Amino acid sequence: MLATVIHAARDIRVENVPDPVLSTGGDAIVRVVAACVCGSDLWPYRGVTPTHAPHRIGHEFVGVVEAVGDAVAKVAVGDFVIAPFYVCDNTCINCRNGVSTSCLHGGWWGSDDRFGGFADGGQGELVRAPLADGGLAVVPGAVTDDEIPGLLTLSDVMGTGHHAAVSAGVGPGDSVAVVGDGAVGLCAIIAARRLGASTIIAMSRHPQRQELARDFGATHIVAERGDIGVKAVQEITGGVGADRVLECVGTKQSMDQAIRSTRPGGMVGYVGAPNGGPELPVRPLFNRNVGVNGGVAPVRGYIERLLPDVRSGAIAPGRVFDLELPLREAAAAYAAMDERRAVKVLLRP
Amino acid sequence: MLATVIHAARDIRVENVPDPVLSTGGDAIVRVVAACVCGSDLWPYRGVTPTHAPHRIGHEFVGVVEAVGDAVAKVAVGDFVIAPFYVCDNTCINCRNGVSTSCLHGGWWGSDDRFGGFADGGQGELVRAPLADGGLAVVPGAVTDDEIPGLLTLSDVMGTGHHAAVSAGVGPGDSVAVVGDGAVGLCAIIAARRLGASTIIAMSRHPQRQELARDFGATHIVAERGDIGVKAVQEITGGVGADRVLECVGTKQSMDQAIRSTRPGGMVGYVGAPNGGPELPVRPLFNRNVGVNGGVAPVRGYIERLLPDVRSGAIAPGRVFDLELPLREAAAAYAAMDERRAVKVLLRP
């Protein structure tokens, strides 16, 4: 089969690799219908994290089940499934606590730790999904082609944006600022509106993304950063800052922007993977009672909750895909996202 | 009048100072009935924070109103009042948001910023309380002498322990670990129990404090620290850590202990002032979805909520006072707390 392999920074190739085979009894083979490139895939692409040896890449996909192991009970051949961006059993204590990203038996696509063989990551034609009963979410009924982008966002970005909002405690009437206008930030706007926020400030400098942000529910756009950006948010929110701020980037600058844009007693929900490990400055948090909550988004638990709204069209996160390419052009997909020519690229095998 | 003055590290003196006088119309003169020494008073006492020049010290007191300014409406001569450990108007947007420690017009006892003159801190015979209507909480009816210690805890430690629990989101059935067995940590145990926690782990190595912790509602004691302490908490909590951890110390070690003792998806409520400014390590928080919430406790807003339970005896935070001294022996009070011979010392003018 074909699959995407990263060889080095800016060296993405689609190559022939062995087809996956069932190995554990609890796994399934999924034929990928659509996959995508994640903002976090850009780190190795940009060389921010090193690539020591060529390896498969990708961790967001939807597809149709082609085979299941003997022990699989909840997933059947022919099912259309959404895979979260990680592997989990959805039954352990952490999963039950809503934190399936800390599953005691789970792990990451593209690895072979504890999974009975290599687990592909979705930027390819086939995937062996370990822990199929827990990880794969079945979409009931017939799936139309125009539903694919929206469903695919439930594998990561829509669930991640939702997690930012949930972690920050967004509720009816809240003022919310969103730092980051990538796919996750845009989905966080959808989530904030869905949860009842009345004021939603998109911090964005990109005209097209600003427009999408407004379509998704942003009531205000703030293009400024730093002190001026903080002041702009305060002016919109009664002089004190936003009740909830959703940090969807992961740099030290974006986190500082988020913390300083939050009102005393407010909460930052952060889902931007902290790349390079900045620490959180405790004094600006402590002195103003600003909380910080979030992390690697446990999207598996959100799929069933968000699915009805995606299918009904009540929310349209699929619009974050502004470029679609065939799988064999994966390198072009990475380049388009790297250069910010595309918010998010959908790949079709 | 007599008041406590710190001259240098370990040099506490009770001296004659001028009586305070009304100056703003919105202030009140309070005759102090009881005051106490705060854990944070030990920082300058120990020289951790420098004392550049002699200054008054103290910020927790209860007393009887002796005079009020023309504009004071809610507080009357003769009222028994509890003062929070800071000055606030209890009406600004931050106060209304429940974060009166960030009051737009407030500040700190022992300062003369924006208050129309010096505002004493309570370790003395008289206090001029600026913003009397907002800051002072009136205790209705007659106050008996044995109520004094409990009421005095509402000026800081009981409200601060409560804030740790509220910030961590403690609710019915939760498992809670409390890091720190000082007065605030002990009050946090009271708060956790009051909010319905079913498992309460006191991390304490001090036999007498362990006993008080059990009296207050601790179901388990963990004397260990570091990896062994984390493991002990995990063993009590199904292998994953406590749902909520209340950090009531403020050192890098105690914060690390708290973060690592929290289960994935759990929350640290922290009220130990971060002395020396350790930063929060973002990766252990992000990777495990452990949130951090809290700060300078806005106790003014908790006084009315906790007062009925203190007066009815449903909770007995006054028991944290294990030594009572006359004001003129303030130096001995500091020494007793510094040497951990006393949990908390009550001073009577």
From TrEMBL, chains A, B:
Its cofactor is Zn(2+). PANTHER family: DEHYDROGENASE, ZINC-CONTAINING, PUTATIVE (AFU_ORTHOLOGUE AFUA_2G02810)-RELATED, ZINC-TYPE ALCOHOL DEHYDROGENASE-LIKE. The keyword Metal-binding applies. It comes from Agromyces neolithicus. This is Zinc-dependent alcohol dehydrogenase family protein. Belongs to the zinc-containing alcohol dehydrogenase family. Residues 7-347 form the Enoyl reductase (ER) domain. SMART domains: PKS_ER. Keywords: Metal-binding, Oxidoreductase, Zinc. Coiled coil: none annotated.
